[in-house]
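Structure (tokenized):
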């Protein structure tokens, strides 16, 4: 049985270099994929200088050296068109070219840092429920606000698409935005409390208009359907915390709002008893 020596491999390698490298061999030696080499040839960056008798591409030592230079400039961030110009000219890129590329890189770093900050904010909202401290929540939403409600909501709906929508919208809001939302919410609560105290009947045009206004207020956080609003209304009436919150504005408001939402749902062909969170 014959055995190859190191010298045999060296001779084989020399022969391969003299005869030219196939595209697969070049890909293995340079770490560039065959697909990338095909693309580089298509854009005129690097081409095989020779062909085998069977018509296969063969890369010379000079071709391989050009590939290595292209890789260096690609790592520097130069676009392929600029790399081709540099390689075709036989010169190195000017210092100004590299400065321009560095400036572009600085801009990209700043952009990535902004994206990182936005992701951190999104994670904060998804995990905490609100990008506000407990003290900020109470100051903005009132003394009867329970910061633990956001945790409860996350535990209940944290895996839903609505929670993702809520986080996407909340991440871009600052303290002033939340203060405006709180003012609008307090104004709506006062209007609902007035209607309840005056004995406005569920299913009346006034009650239905208030139910629509309530659903629109929920749309600030996520896309709320009538069926989902029914689920929310029943939560208001059944959860002790929410019930105390609404009844603090007007006795019986939580149940009144639930009944008004149910009546509005029936008018839209939705049975409150079978309504689901969509």
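Design, position by position:
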């Amino acid at each position: 049985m014959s055995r190859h020596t190191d010298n045999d491999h060296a001779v084989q390698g020399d022969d391969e270099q003299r005869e030219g490298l196939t595209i697969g061999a070049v890909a293995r030696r340079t770490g560039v994929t065959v697909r990338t080499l095909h693309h580089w040839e298509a854009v005129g960056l690097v081409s095989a200088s020779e062909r085998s008798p069977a018509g296969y591409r063969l890369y010379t030592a000079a071709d391989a050296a050009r590939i290595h230079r292209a890789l260096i400039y690609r790592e520097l961030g130069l676009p392929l068109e600029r790399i081709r110009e540099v390689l075709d000219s036989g010169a190195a890129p000017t210092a100004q070219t590299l400065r321009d590329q560095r400036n572009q890189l600085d801009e990209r770093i700043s952009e990535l840092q902004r994206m990182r900050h936005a992701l951190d904010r999104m994670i904060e909202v998804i995990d905490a429920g609100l990008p506000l401290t407990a003290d900020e929540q109470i100051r903005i939403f009132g003394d009867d606000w329970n910061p633990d409600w956001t945790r409860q909501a996350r535990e209940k709906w944290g895996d839903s698409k609505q929670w993702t929508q809520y986080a996407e919208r909340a991440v871009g809001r600052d303290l002033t935005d939340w203060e405006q939302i709180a003012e609008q919410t307090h104004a709506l609560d006062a209007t609902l409390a007035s209607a309840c105290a005056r004995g406005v009947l569920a299913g009346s045009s006034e009650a239905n208009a208030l139910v629509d206004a309530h659903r629109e207020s929920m749309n600030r956080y996520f896309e709320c359907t009538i069926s989902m609003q029914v689920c929310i209304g029943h939560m208001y009436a059944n959860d002790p915390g929410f019930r105390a919150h609404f009844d603090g504005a007007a006795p019986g408001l939580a149940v009144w709002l639930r009944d008004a939402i149910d009546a509005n749902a029936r008018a839209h062909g939705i049975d409150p008893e079978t309504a689901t969170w969509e």
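Reviewer-requested clarification: Residues 1-18 have pLDDT under 50 and may be disordered. Residues 262 and 272 are 6 Å apart (CA to CA).
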